[in-house]
Amino acid sequence: MSRIVKISPSKLGFYWKNTYLRISFIAKDNNSVKKRFSSMIDFSKFNSLIQVTDYFNTEAICKQTIAESRWEDGEAVCPYCGKKHCKMGKDGRYLCYDCKRKFNVTVGTIFENTKLSLRKWFIAMYLVSSHKKGVSSCQLARDIKTTQKTAWFMLHKIRGLYGITDEIALDGEVEMDEMYLGGRETNKHEGKKTPNNQGRSTKTKTPIFGMIERGGNVIAMKVDNTQGSTLMPIVEQFVETGATTYTDEANIYNRLTENGYIHHFVNHRQREYVRAKDIHTNGIEGFWAHFKRVIFSTYHMVSKDYLQRYIDEQVYRWNTRKENAEFRFEDMFKRAVKSFDYTDVLSLSSVVSIEHFREYRLMYYNLWKSTHCA
User: Fold this and answer.
1) How many other C-beta atoms lie within 10 A of the C-beta of residue 63?
2) Does domain 173-301 have CATH number 3.30.420.10?
3) Does the reported pTM lie above 0.90?
4) Is the pLDDT of residue 347 over 90?
5) In the chain, at which residue ranges do the beta strands (DSSP E only) sit?
6) Is the pLDDT assigned to residue 170 strictly greater than 90?
7) Contacts of residue 261, Cβ cutoff 8 Å, sequence gap at least 6
8) Cβ(259)–Cβ(245) below 8 Å
9) Among 103, 2, 123, which Cα is nearest to 55's?
10) Tag placement on the chain: N or C end, fewer CB within 10 Å?
11) pLDDT score of 204 more than 60
């Protein structure tokens, strides 16, 4: 049973004055009732962009959705001290009675300090979650009417929600392989070719290591090199001991057996791709094919400094390939409680430090000033 009632602040953990809420009453016994808030948003209905734009038509609805996704029990939690004794003022901001600090609903999320409309953020999140091959910053800038730099920054904050965690463990039958992202020497001009850069060379290519559980999840990450001393700790971290592993003939996998894994391999050098019907690496090769199509057809070129974020995006999309866009759209809100700022996006890789970036920006500005202001 449910009805619309007007309640005073003292009867709720909220401090929303003169607010009408839908309350569901569930009898616990003959003398008391248990009050709970019914869900105000159903993400399963967002199966098209039209439905997203129709529902999120005001900033108030967007903020309400963020609040419901962050605080499912209805009580605002202070992002600074973690306490629940918070009061909402007339300006829409909360005041924590413990630490005496004010905050709004976006503090502690990827939307914190944003100057953009939350509607544009929600549209961007839905486009990323629904497009199989991702969205480029140029295309997103045209779709939501922002600059390309703003769209690029938004996309990187969204990709930051997909980071690999130790919660993923691979077991059973696991395929492993490495790939090298970079231009082929045969496609380069004769004067731009790098000598002795064939095969597994990393002079102009970035190595990526991947593992996939047959019928399950995939894990991929950028690595410094493809030596056994680099890859074996990654395998031991994510693959359960005793699992059956399938690789190619590369000698970097020779230590799998002595590390407690059952090891089978195929010899690609001799054009052997399947042996005994189930010994192959076609699963991880399929992921590499999809990843390359995304890079070549959507992004065209990515910096190695930010490559891991693009890998995480495609890993997440592959691991949720059986789910629909509504599920991924809802999952984004659950992950969006993590806090980001501008320096987090710039320091995604250990290759480029914030200090180096600031020095480069200052040098570029001085060069521009000497050229245009002389």
Assistant:
1) 16
2) yes
3) no
4) no
5) 2-6, 20-27, 33-37, 86-88, 94-96, 102-103, 173-181, 206-213, 218-222, 244-247, 262-265
6) yes
7) 235, 239, 241, 242, 243, 244, 245
8) no
9) 123
10) C
11) yes
